[in-house]
Specification:
alpha/beta, 7 helices
Length: 214
């Protein structure tokens, strides 16, 4: 049965970056029985009513792999930076989803726990704030100077148009700064909200710490 719109959240995964530091396409790197991209997409699809994934022009093969999990958005402006990809993704989401919330995450973060995504969605649907930001609990140790705020970040529909105006490499950081008083930090004990993959050693390091979904 389809969820009522006031009780659902969409999600948007940004995956159009080139990932040059990894050496090869990190989205296709193997992680357990599937690729990094498939692991991430599968997990988000299990929580959110609608999932959108932004890829770049030329990613048609990857788009076909991920299409069972999500609506694929091929951004013609991905080369302009994460902000452009976010704007293109949000334009597509607004045209296809009536959910009052959208969580924006990254396709190279496959280690986030399912219960974390479920928790974030539930918080959004009961919050009086406009932005839900996953934040690692102070009880979980991390290297010094490591930010504790992670992904995915939830945005109320009243902010969707602002996200459509994103540009450059900063993604939604401008909106988080401009709307600081509207942010609810949701404390979690899941290192997966910080575990993005930039280099092959990152994949090995996080794989040892945080088991994937299989």
């Amino acid at each position: 049965m389809q969820q009522k719109t006031e009780q659902c959240c969409s999600a948007l995964l940004l995956g159009a970056g080139l990932g040059r530091r990894f050496g090869t396409d990190k989205r296709l790197a193997r992680l357990g029985a599937a690729s990094v991209a498939e692991q991430t997409a599968r997990r988000y699809a299990q929580t959110f009513s609608q999932l959108f994934i932004v890829l770049r022009q030329g990613d048609e093969s990857l788009a076909e792999i991920l299409s069972p999990f999500a609506k694929i958005v091929l951004s013609e402006r991905a080369h302009q930076g994460m902000g452009a990809s976010l704007a293109d993704g949000m334009q597509s989401l607004m045209g296809a989803s009536a959910c009052p919330w959208a969580f924006v995450g990254l396709l190279d973060m496959p280690f986030i726990r399912q219960e974390t995504l479920d928790s974030l969605q539930q918080v959004a649907l009961t919050s009086s704030k406009l932005i839900i930001r996953p934040t690692l609990s102070q009880e979980i140790p991390v290297p010094e100077a490591t930010p504790r705020q992670g992904h995915p970040v939830g945005f109320h529909a009243s902010l969707f148009q602002d996200l459509c105006r994103s540009e450059g490499d900063r993604g939604a950081k401008h909106l988080l700064q401009a709307r600081a008083g509207a942010v609810q930090d949701h404390l979690l004990e899941d290192l997966g909200i910080l575990a993005d993959i930039d280099r092959p050693e990152d994949l090995a390091r996080w794989s040892a710490l945080l088991p994937s979904s299989g």
